[in-house]
Amino acid sequence: MTKRFFKALATSAVLSVGIAGGATAAECIAPANPGGGWDFTCRQIGKILFDIGAVDKPVQVTNMPGAGGGLAYGNVVNERGSDEDLIVAASSATTTRLAQNAYAGMTADQVRFVGAIGADPGVIVVAADSDYQTLGDLVEAIKADPGSVAFAGGSAVGGFDHLKPLMILKEGGFTDITKVKYIGVDGGADAITQTVGGFTQAMTGDMSEVVSFLSNGDIRVIAVLTDERVPGFDDIPTAKEQGYDVVAVNWRGLYVPKDISDAKFDEWAGKLQQVADSPEWAQAMKDNGLAPFTKVGGDFQAYVDGLVADIATMSKELGVTQ
């Protein structure tokens, strides 16, 4: 692990963009190459922390790709478990992989999840001419005949797109999730094409994947999986208001080493809240197609704990994990 870690550091892209008080500047690890979602999280949050004066020294951003986030996770757990100046970019993919034991036996309780301040909302989509007008129509059809509805999504079987409709169905009282038909394709656009073409009856994905199809009139979004309706898409009802208490978003946030002090954890949560409340972050979300999703500190940790437990249970039922 150590040899791989130093190799990752040697080839990493490091950018000074802003953080913590004290003699040592903080570091944000992006567990992927430059340009992706985790890299965006580190660079944008780090920059805004510095720009708004929440921290007084530049944040060092280190790209550490490998094992879908597993290399960075192992480094934090095994070598930097009490580093109070370290933050790490995370998303829904992080918790899904942890729930499915994709990080070589490491578990979600080996770090602390400090917060999320933006998200790509999950959606359930049907073709514009579909007979299914509401989420309830779709759920009831599956309960009556599980084979009558197939979902297309951009993740593999057992991935987060697959799990979104299963969470809804469980809330609706349907427990035999192995009977739900799901086709994993190469990205959200392909999933929509499958649905618009009538090969599947619904698509499960993220809001950013469907906006252009929605504006073209090809599809209808029958549910967004957020606490509240998404600004700019106020005519789309949430699953919650339709009676299915499910929030499933591709959140953008951070975790920190497990053994830092409670005071430092609370400090990081407070700084992340400052970023969430800033006009700079509001603009960053608008520029990058994110919706508000702010959970910090203990509230976010509780959310993650519940999400990991739910995904682990469903993954076992699906046979994705043992």
List the helices and strands and how they pair.
Blueprint: H1 2-11, E1 14-16, E2 27-30, H2 37-51, E3 60-63, H3 70-79, E4 86-91, H4 92-99, E5 111-127, H5 135-144, E6 150-153, H6 160-171, E7 181-184, H7 188-196, E8 202-206, H8 207-215, E9 219-224, E10 249-257, H9 262-276, H10 279-288, E11 295-296, H11 298-318
Parallel strand pairs: 2-3, 2-4, 6-7, 6-8
Antiparallel strand pairs: 1-3, 4-10, 5-8, 5-9, 5-10, 5-11
Helix pairs in contact: 4-11
Explain what you see.
This protein is α/β, with parallel strands linked by helices and 322 residues long. It has 2 domains: 2-119 and 250-318, D-Maltodextrin-Binding Protein, domain 2, CATH 3.40.190; 120-242, 3-Layer(aba) Sandwich (D-Maltodextrin-Binding Protein, domain 2), CATH 3.40.190. It is built from 11 helices and 11 strands. Helix 4 packs across helix 11.
What CATH calls the topology of the largest domain is: D-Maltodextrin-Binding Protein, domain 2
Q: What's the number of domains?
A: 2
Helix content: 40-55%
Number of helices: 11
Strand count: 11
CATH architecture level-2 label of the largest domain: 3-Layer(aba) Sandwich
| Low-confidence sequence ranges | 1-23
H/E topology pattern = HEEHEHEHEHEHEHEHEEHHEH
Strand content: 15-25%
Query: What is the typical, i.e. mean, pLDDT?
Result: 91
The CATH superfamily title of the largest domain: Bordetella uptake gene, domain 1
Distance between the termini: 26 Å
What would CATH call the class of the largest domain? Alpha Beta
In terms of structural class, how would the helical and strand content be classed?
Answer: alpha/beta
Shape: globular
CA radius of gyration is 20 Å
